[in-house]
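User: Second chain of the day. Same drill as before.
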Amino acid sequence: CTGGTVSTEHLYKILVIGDLGVGKTSIIKRYVHHNFSPNYRATIGVDFALKVLNLDQETVRLQLWDIAGQERFGNMTRVYYREAMGAFIVFDVTRPASFEAVTKWKEDLDSKVTLANGNHVATVLLANKCDQGRDVLTNNGIKMEQFCQENGFVGWFETSAKENINIDEAANCLVKHIITSENDMLQSEVHDTITPQLETDKGGTCTSCFRSQ
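Assistant: Same format as last time:
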């Protein structure tokens, strides 16, 4: 029951997955380092990057895991996915095959990592390289909203690492859902631990503490 404002810190592990060459590394570099390089270098295994956000009185540290596309559905992904709180699944709008692989990436992710409450991690779908084909999604007749709902995505964005389109917006969306999910889990834990005590001992320090908050 302490007064005043307390600054809190959060560390969230976020996976960036999808087929080889869809732009995962470029998205991370744009988001973290604010730059873009046209020189392509395939990621080997997994790379890491750290992004620090200041939201209200909270410091949020995002540990971004750049999972190589050739690791697709391999046994090592279970190790890479461990303790993740959120994910981006990326496809290239100019390569329909990379979109067709999205559901397999999502199924693989859901089968290998869950939150403490058993729910799937928040996942945002990124339709990358939209600067090269803004009309591709429309021409293919893909109903993205319906697709996301049916496959358990919390949202989707057309993105371009080259032109810096929707990178920050997509990340903010994912972080918002991660924080909401974490708060829901904390409230559930409080309910599970506090309720039995309140039933046997009416009042007490727990209820007065909650009132003061």
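The domain at 8-190 is CATH 3.40.50.300 (Rossmann fold).

User: Great, on to the next one.
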